[in-house]
Amino acid sequence: MPIDAAKALAAEPRSGEIRWERRDVQLYHLGIGAGRPATDPDELRYTLETRLHVLPSFATVAGAGSPGVISGLSMPGIDVDLARVLHGGQSLTLHRPIPVAGTATATGRIAAVYDKGKAAVLVMRTDVADADGPLWTNDAQIFVRGEGGWGGDRGPSTRLAPPAGEPDRTVERPVREDQALLYRLSGDYNPLHADPEFAKLAGFDRPILHGLCTYGMTLKAVVDTLLGGDVSRVRSYATRFAGVVYPGETLRIRMWRSDGRVQVAVSAAEREDAPVLADTIVEHL
Asked: Is 193 a catalytic site residue?
């Protein structure tokens, strides 16, 4: 079996230093659609160095930009065909606000291996800390088709009950035609998001947007709409990737608010509300 669960779970964690500067933060923010309108005081918090704050989803690209999916597939005990791999979900826990610039140690390991029958799910966990202590924990859920069936733990269900009633807020966010080209400059250079020929080989009519770009755009919408633009209020953020987005489309973001959390559903407006992000929760102060 290409996945040796026991070996993957027993492997020594991998640690390395990561660095980021305010320019990296600004570029990431532009990559998820910040800066429109360019002179809006609320947008300047994402783009102007003298007012800059850091959207927590920046944690997914800080330092190197390579998503947890890629690092997870290089761990001991894992030898799978990349064509069978899907980024199934992403979760982030903030231990304190992310500084505008910093140096930290990132430690990655396989935290769980689940047997879903016809597929396996790997959880690649990355803990990041600087000299002042823990900063954040990222979990990437890696779905590997055809690698289940060995009788292992199925793992917890991540499916949430549908929220009751109409959403408290619904907003739409346009995705620029060049959004993927800009976002990939933060470190994810997968040609699926830029090369039409590669996209066709992967079964798509044209390049698709990075799932983590949609992830960032959604968190920004929640922060700006329901959290008063205060990024420091975010405590955790989790989602399941339910479908693709094409550059040039419009994200329809529905939000249901309850005490200390927001449940979110994201769809592609032009494709009859085809689901994009599901089982999405932002926990906040």
From this structure: yes
